[in-house]
Amino acid sequence: MLNKLLFQNNLIEKSLDAAWVRNDIISQNIANVDTPGYKRKEVKFEEYLDSEMKLSRISNGKTRLQGDGDIKVVEDHESYSYRLDGNNVDIEREMAQMAMNTLRYNTLIQRISGELNKIRTVIRGR
Amino acid sequence: MGFFSAMESSASALTAQRLRMDTISENIANASTTRSEEGTPYRRKTVIFEAQNGNAPFSSYLSKASRELFTNGGVRVSRIVEDQTPFKSVYDPGHPDADENGIVEMPNVEVVTEMVNMISAARAYEASVTAINTSKSMASKALEIGK
Q1: How far apart are CA A42 and CA A38, in angstroms?
Q2: Predicted ipTM beyond 0.90
């Protein structure tokens, strides 16, 4: 029973991890905004989560979202580079992504605190 | 996925941009220096940025997710190079460094270009400061879990 209670938290934890890595990657992109030839990096996680949910692996507990191999960092070679130095970091986009990522992260923190509070209430029984 | 790696990347950018700013200041300060140690007028200096990929922490080898692209990716100045564009020739016969035709070789520094570069460096610096603050707030938010 407790396993089921805590399973939700595993998902939130994983999403928090992804948000943390994304923050790291966005910081790297911002740091390299003036580096010639640098290609921006991106974190792929939500796509993976979505496909796992569609295959309903999550509801029956057979998800592979446990280990480490699912937060993918990829280099983005497709984004249009409007600069002569071959760098495709767009600072506005990175800052916006960073703001979105922080909001997502704070939401997840709130959710996991809520889940833990629920469990606490159950344990206390009042 | 180190606890402070995002802040370290941003901090490396702060260092690099500040060095760039120092170089720009040097260029502006020497915009009309006609005598340098090499005997030529002052040559404009530029910094070369390079993405930092080495010294990945142990944890990145440990974790499968980070084996490929996810390393400590800050930025560093690989070297400072001198701009080899020709010096500007100015007619000024009264100048002590003028040749027999009255031509003085002035440094190849364009003050307007330097000012534009300076604004660009200042903006990049600000962006990194914002990134550090965001990382900081995320890290302290994580301490609130379960409160």
Answers
A1: 13
A2: no
